[in-house]
Amino acid sequence: MPIGVFDSGLGGLTILRALQNRLPNQAFMYLGDNANTPYGTRDAYDVFDLTTKSVQTLFDKGCELIILACNTASASALHRMQVSWLPEGNNRVLGVFVPMIENLTQRDWGDNAPPTHTGLENVAVFATQSTIESAAFPREMKFRARDVEVVGHACDGLVDAIEAGDEAESTTLVQAHVNNLLARLPNPQAAVLGCTHYPIVEDIFRAALPEATKLLSQPGIVADATADYLDRHERYKETGITQYFTTGEIDKVGKLAELFLGHPADWRKV
Ligand code: DGL
Asked: Which terminus in the chain has less CB density within 10 A, N or C?
């Protein structure tokens, strides 16, 4: 069965692309909830309802392993899904936060030892409003690492500017958002782009951040973590192509998706 890759819309394609590069023979099934995007300005109840609906669609289409390639869904819905929604059996849902925290703290998720000093003192997190409000990143970080200051910033407007392909507006917004965060944390040791759209403007973030700040690129980190997971859970491996589904209008989605994918794709409506 293909691995399901879910996002609120198009941003998850940045993760899908990295997964395709890392696992060229693996079958994937992408689903973008373009009819209800964006999730980043919705409350946690809404995000949970919409995410579970789409994840159920992917389960119904035969996926057993699903990657929530959406930080907002991973932050606001995943924990609740895992404790109270997921059916018994082999169906699994993984988020995109855990690999980032593993990478930052150099601690495996399965390592249940108490939090330790990992050498990380502070980290900047750029994300949507819902992700920042969920406080999921600082909460998960606290389970692993001691005395880490997490400074989050909601990059209002940036998802829209990226989807519109408006480079000038994206540049202005990234610079303003980075400056806002730097006023609170002048020299972040590390910075996380905690929104699947932001890798499209990673170079602008890189230029706006201090040179010494380590910038974590989520797609590559998630792809490596997925490859590692599949080596430990071979039952989810399957050779095949990628199928593309959307809840939105296929013509409009197909056109915009090229910006994220770099090539045309055959979109179908669910
Ligand atoms: N995919 C979302 C994320 O990574 C961004 C787009 C949205 O707000 O729906 O947070």
From this structure: C
Q: How far is the CA of 144 from the centre of ligand 1 (A)?
A: 25
Centroid of chain to Cα 189? 21
Confidence grade of residue 122 (pLDDT, cut at 50, 70, 90) = very high
Tell me the mean pLDDT in the region 229-235.
96
Helix (H) or strand (E) holding 260: helix 250-261
Residues 178 and 122 in one domain: yes
Helix (H) or strand (E) holding 182: helix 167-184
Quick one: DSSP state of residue 44? Answer: H
| Catalytic status, residue 155 | no
Torsions phi, psi of 5, nearest 5? -125, 115
Regarding whether 107 and 76 lie in a shared domain, the answer is no
What is the rounded CA–CA span in Å between residue 239 and residue 82?
27
Beta partners for 191?
124, 215
Active-site residue (options: 5, 191, 195, 221)? 195
**32 touches 9 (CB < 8 A):** yes
**Residue to mutate, 43, 51, 195, ligand 1, most ligand atoms under 8 Å from C-beta:** 195
Residues 156 and 242 in one domain: no
Q: Which whole number is the average pLDDT over 86-106? A: 92
| pLDDT beyond 90 at 198 | yes
Task: From the candidates 63, 70, 154, 173, give the one annotated as an active-site residue.
Answer: 70
Question: Which structure tokens are listed for 247?
Answer: 């809840």
